[in-house]
Specification:
The complex is a heterodimer.
Chain A (H helix, E strand, L loop, with lengths): L2 E6 L4 H10 L13 H8 L7 E5 L15 E4 H11 L6 H12 L12 E7 L2 H5 L13 H16 L22 E3 L16 E7 L3 E4 L7 H11 L1 H6 L7 E7 L1 H9 L4 H12 L8 H11 L19 E4 L7 E8 L5 E4 L2
Parallel strand pairs in A: 4-5, 8-9
Antiparallel strand pairs in A: 2-3, 4-6, 6-11, 7-10, 8-10
Helix pairs in contact in A: 2-3, 3-6, 4-6, 7-10
Chain B lengths: L1 E6 L24 E6 L4 H15 L4 E6 L6 H13 L2 E7 L4 H14 L4 E5 L4 H10 L7 E3 L9 H20 L5
Parallel strand pairs in B: 2-3, 2-4, 4-5, 5-6
The chains are: A alpha+beta, B alpha/beta.
Chain lengths: 346, 179
């Protein structure tokens, strides 16, 4: 492993933290110094020189790519970033699997615009590592949730070069990029898990969380479905203009999921209904876009189909998570044209 | 003073393989100009610009393509057709955080096809466009700035802007590489 000597005025916390910040290795929060001892403990005997993933997001036509497009990330570099993020050594397997999922599509480039990698864990790994799938699972209130996600961010930053001065330049950013990690609350779900078959992590390109309320008792699932569907107005509206770059994931509370199940609804049926609502694009043609398309199509061979703006036909996905007591769910807008990637852990 | 030995968590800055810019023409006589367009009023600008070019040179024609991303299906086909048909191109307008890298990336793609380009970017986003191009191996991409608020101008004001920028854009197109 490559080491560097960090010269500091003193060994006190403030001086070391400032020195690490000055190196550009931090996301702005304090980081744990990646000493060889800590990194070796994180590695757990793994070969630090092995290339684990290629970072970059340099696919043709990709909107954003990282400063180090096409750069290999070694296990040793990843371990150093996991140390800095505050991970316990036992989290490292989850960090490695998460990076595989994040880079499975476009080398991680899907997570550089207005979206963050939402990491969703299934299976025993949730309990093994203490990854919360219940109350406040998306808050940074749990060490595993907070630090596994942050480790991914630090790898993208420090190895991938996803920093503001190196291509990573978006209008607003997204707070979930620090960490957006949850487990699926399988024990409270009436349905099969999102990724069955043992421990797994799935990644979604998430751009926010929108709470959905439906407190009515007794619950009528047709009403619940109506309310969930109406939340998709945001997605439909955001496809008008003219970048149809939004789709949706729903995180149903156990209460809401059970209401559907009690009424005999399968998860697939709920997904089908919500997918139909999401992809029922507004019958609105904005005059400016119509004019633009007319301009583009002018002079084209009339035998060819006229050019249109491609609309995503993505499928709505459903997870079950959160505290057991609430009659709330979440609509999570996701990046359109991106497919959630799942990696199983051995 | 004390020293702390740490494992390096960072990768060195990637060495970019510099790609060769397309040869610059000495004249655009007999050539087809391409306009890769995205931004309100940018089409007004390009049409005024085309009029100025046509007044000075015996251009063979022009083509326009929309800058819409992501590209797939007929949009992608049209983009590829555009790349085959044009002899030189203007790519713009990079007026937002998405438009600027797109305009630059599209210009890089055209340069890789041998199509000399000039990319039009608003001042605040020149850095982003430049870094986008550098990351793809085109640090010398020819970039000219246009005001941020093109869409706030009247059509006549946009046409005047085209007249004001004409010489600068043509110089960016025609000046030989390395000068």
């Amino acid at each position: 492993m490559d080491t560097v000597d960090l010269t500091v005025d003193s060994n006190d916390f403030d001086a070391v933290w400032q020195a690490l910040l000055d190196r550009g290795w931090s996301d702005g929060l304090p980081v744990v110094p990646p000493t060889p001892e800590r990194v070796n403990a994180m590695l757990g005997g793994r070969d630090p020189s092995l290339v684990h993933v290629i970072l970059g997001g340099d696919a043709p036509g990709a909107m954003y790519s990282m400063g180090n497009a096409g750069t290999p990330a070694t296990v040793g570099q990843i371990a150093a970033n996991a140390v800095m993020a505050g991970c316990r050594p036992e989290y490292f397997q989850a960090v490695l699997a998460s990076l595989q999922a994040v880079t499975a599509s476009n080398n991680g480039g899907d997570f550089l615009g207005g979206s963050a990698p939402l990491l969703v864990f299934n299976g025993p790994i949730r309990h093994d590592l203490g990854i919360s799938s219940s109350h406040e699972m998306l808050s940074m209130a749990h060490r595993a949730n907070a630090t596994i996600g942050r480790a991914i961010r630090l790898v993208l930053r420090n190895v991938g070069g996803a920093t503001p001065d190196r291509l990573f330049d978006v209008q607003f950013g997204m707070p979930g990029r620090t960490a957006m990690v949850m487990g699926e609350h399988e024990e409270e779900s009436p349905w099969a898990p999102f990724a069955p078959g043992g421990s797994a992590v799935s990644v979604f390109a998430a751009s926010g969380t929108m709470p959905v309320n439906y407190h009515q008792v007794p619950q009528r699932v047709e009403e619940l479905l109506l309310i969930l569907s109406r939340c998709l107005d945001y997605v439909r509206g955001n496809r008008l203009g003219p970048w149809p770059d939004t789709s949706a994931l729903f995180v149903l509370s156990p209460k809401h999921a059970r209401a559907f199940a009690a009424a005999g609804w399968t998860k697939e049926r709920v997904e089908d209904e919500l997918t139909a609502a999401m992809n029922d694009h507004y019958d609105i043609e904005l005059p400016s876009i119509a004019e633009k398309l007319e301009l583009i199509n002018r002079g084209r061979d009339p035998q060819e189909p006229p050019m249109t703006i491609p609309m995503p036909e993505d499928r709505v996905h459903i997870l079950v998570a959160g505290g057991v007591a609430g009659w709330h769910s979440l609509m999570i807008p996701t990046r359109a044209f991106s497919t959630p990637q799942t990696v199983h852990m051995v | 003073m004390s020293s702390l030995k740490l494992v390096d968590p960072a990768a060195p800055r990637k060495t970019i393989v510099r790609r060769a810019m397309s040869d610059r023409p000495t004249s655009v006589d007999g050539m087809v100009v391409g306009f890769r367009e995205f931004w309100p009023k940018f089409d007004v600008f390009t049409r005024a610009f085309e009029g100025l070019v046509s007044a000075q040179y015996d251009v063979r024609g022009s083509e326009r393509v929309d800058g819409t991303h992501p590209r797939s299906g007929v949009v992608l086909e049209r983009w590829q057709e555009f790349g085959r048909n044009v002899d030189w191109a203007i790519s713009g307008l990079g007026g937002c955080g998405g438009c600027a890298p797109w305009a630059a990336m599209d210009a890089c793609e055209l340069e890789s096809l041998g199509v000399p380009t000039v990319t039009l970017i608003t001042p605040d986003l020149v850095g982003l466009a430049r870094r986008t191009a550098e990351g793809r191996g085109w640090p010398d991409l020819r970039i000219v700035t246009l005001p941020q608020f093109l869409d706030d101008l009247t059509d006549d004001e946009v046409r005047i802007l085209a007249e004001e920028k004409y010489e600068e854009i043509m110089a960016a197109l025609l000046t030989p590489i390395g000068r």
